[in-house]
Input
Amino acid sequence: MKLIKRIVLYFFALNLMAMGVALYLKVDIGVGSWDVLHGNLYDFYHLTVGTWVFIVGIITVIISLVFYFKISNVLAIITNLFFGWIIDFWFIYVFTFNISPLLLKYSLFFLSLIFLGSGIALLIFTKLSPTPPDILMLSFMK
Output
């Protein structure tokens, strides 16, 4: 039963993270390093941001497996697929507005950081599969 709670909390954490990422991409004030990559690939190749999250995540997991092979890290590919879908859901279907007032942009950016930070904290709390960038960094450490 405890595992089921952790899994539900894990997917809730991924949802919070996806809301944060989609909102700060929409606000367009500043983004994290991996999200800059996904956003620029979206602008250049016109696939969705979530699709690029998934593609880059697969490549990242494969590279990390070269440095440190751990079979449980392959689960991050499934997690990343879900994460990409949720980012697309929030980015395409929910956050459809355009924001022009600067004060509103900063307020929504701050809100997106709260979503993202809360999601990351919950994700770590569950002690389940980390995201592909985290797996890459852990593989480099090993």
